[in-house]
Amino acid sequence: MGTIVNGANGGFKGKAGSIIGSSWKSINYIKGLYKKRSKPASEAQMMQQEKFKTLMRFLLPINFFLKIGFGRKNTEKLTPINAAFQFNLDQAITGIYPDYTLDYSKISISDGSLYGGGTVGVSYDAGDLSFTWSTDDSETFETFSDDMVYVLAYHPEKDEFISTPTPSTRAAGTVSFTVPEHLATGAVHTWLFLSNRSKTKVSKSVYLGEIQLI
Question: InterPro entries from the entry (predicted)?
Answer without folding.
Answer: DUF6266
